[in-house]
Amino acid sequence: MEIINERKATDLQTSDFYYELPQELIAQTPAQKRDMSRLMVIDREKDTVTHRRFENIIDYLNPEDVLVVNSSKVIPARLIGVSEKTGSPMELLLLRAREKGLWECLVRPGKRAKIGATFSFGGILQAAVEDIVEEGNRLVRFSYDTSRYTSIYEVLDLVGNMPLPPYITQKLEDKNRYQTVYAKELGSAAAPTAGLHFTEELLSAIRAKGVGYAEVTLHVGLGTFRPVKAKRIEDHTMHLEHFHIQKETADLINERKAKGGRIVAVGTTSCRVLESVADENGIIHPMEAETGIFIYPGYKFKAIDALITNFHLPESTLLMLVSALAGKERMLKAYKEAVEERYRFFSFGDAMLIQ
Predict the structure, then answer these.
(1) What confidence tens digit (pLDDT) does each residue in 187-235 have?
(2) Which of 262, 213, 268 is CA-nearest to residue 238?
(3) 226 in any annotated domain
(4) Which of 5, 19, 170, 311 has the fewest beta carbons closer than 10 A?
(5) pLDDT tens per residue, range 2-11
(6) Are 65 and 203 part of one and the same domain?
(7) 183 with 52, same domain?
(8) CA nearest 252: which of 124, 16, 66, 76?
């Protein structure tokens, strides 16, 4: 399996991407209607900031453009069960499949998850720890009654919980609100949240305008929430995430680009796929691989022209990525304005278009 990594030398510090955020601006619940969240539009050429609603995103898309979304679907990856030996409670979070039946997991508490330890979840899913890997994660072998259930995903639907980010403390009433309306391929431990703002109706209207629509798949790992602990950003190690992009998708994107259209990525995950598969001439190539591409100021974008994204955590790799596209000073100034205008932040928060 090919692994894509890319980084540039820089003097930037992680602390250069800090900003003050009042706790009450962290959105705990999604907007009542997906496309009624707010939208901040940053025009890099005009150096302007405009405040709209997300339903107005169609006004900023041209018929020749192509909208690229991440079709990965969140699995109910959070499991709460017990040790088969002692009955003690254990929590597992499935991060990514290593092979059929074998998953890399985050475990809590770690002291109960020694190699050979076994656990049960809901009486229908069993787990055995086979190895301890980087950062203390475990390789866990899952088993279930294959005569009753067709796949582990069917079992997870019964015993698993949605793995909401740690900053969301309220219970999610409708678990579908942590899925995009175009989610298809099971595999993510977190939602590609920029896409949560789209409705079926809005996507239909965008297509009717002539805008191209393309799907890539990147399965989001928990590393998207991990803080950057390195003092210098270039010393941070990105987590690997599995992705694929089909030939038909690559052809559509290249065709639109050749005719003068823009590639508008929905979310940092779609952006990372496109930048991982683009050559130096900006041509998109079909591929299945793992990417650990780290995009921060100094990076030269090869593929995307515009980005739809959410508001990201201070000192996060996601804030570094959008700062690479829009400029660090401009981005921190925009975030300051968003705080003053009482935008809602993070996964269930408001949106931004950088064009």
Answers:
(1) 998 999 999 999 999 999 999 999 999 999 999 987 766 789 999 998 9
(2) 268
(3) yes
(4) 170
(5) 777 766 667 8
(6) yes
(7) yes
(8) 66
